[in-house]
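The instructor's notes for this session suggest beginning with a concrete chain rather than abstract definitions. Hand out the sequence below and ask the class to guess, before any prediction is shown, which regions might be ordered.
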Amino acid sequence: LAIWTLLPIYHLLLFAISPKDQAMGGQLWPDSPTLRNFEIVFRQEHHYLNNFWLQMWNSLFIAVLAGLLTLAVATGAAFAISRLKVKGGRLAMNLALFTYFIPAAFLAVPMYKTMGVYGLLNNQWSLILAMVTIATPYAIWVLKQASDKLPFELDEAAKIDGASPLQLFRLVYLPLMTPSLVAVGTYALLLAWNEYLYAFLLLSNDRQITLGVALGNFLAADDSPWELLMTTGLIYAIPPAAIYYTFKRYMVGGLTAGAVKS
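After discussion, reveal the predicted structure:
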């Protein structure tokens, strides 16, 4: 299973280090491994790569903002539902989760129409808001389950000491929820980083699109430079992999918080 899983990654690396004339040779290892493909990508020496660094920045900008906004909305909602017990909070959370019964691909055209009505087409904020919309219901659910595990005696003690709801949120809730917050933020960031369909529909300008969408441009020509496509894809895969392994222990603990009652 591990070999089967790693085989595509191996072929990705194989293409990336192969000269152009050996890229499609079907060899297990190139006769003359080279890093020239990486140099071409980094120096933007191919017309498909004219905006490589800008598109990489676009991907990072959109992913980070989507993660932060998802955290802001989901954290506040989970706090209100779980700790403040606002009226109708559970119903709102369940209705939000109900949206997952509709595949995200089916919502792409309505989302496109909505962004057009508000004049946000070909604006990076359209993709950011779309990603926040998709990620938030699950984020609220995860944070709410984690919040339910926190002892309510802490809230009562803080209220006795005169803490307001905002002080309770800032001084008690946020520090205790850090692992879950990191997990949810990482989840939302990776979701936005890897999104293709919405990014393809909502953004069209080469200077606005993400690198993931730009990779599709390589397939537009009959003589696609596969070695450069795979090299760019390998580079594009490194940041999310690094982020995931950096916060892996938070991801495992944070996303399962509240799954089991002690």
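Then share the key points. Residues 52-82 form the longest helix (31 residues). The chain has a mean pLDDT of 86.
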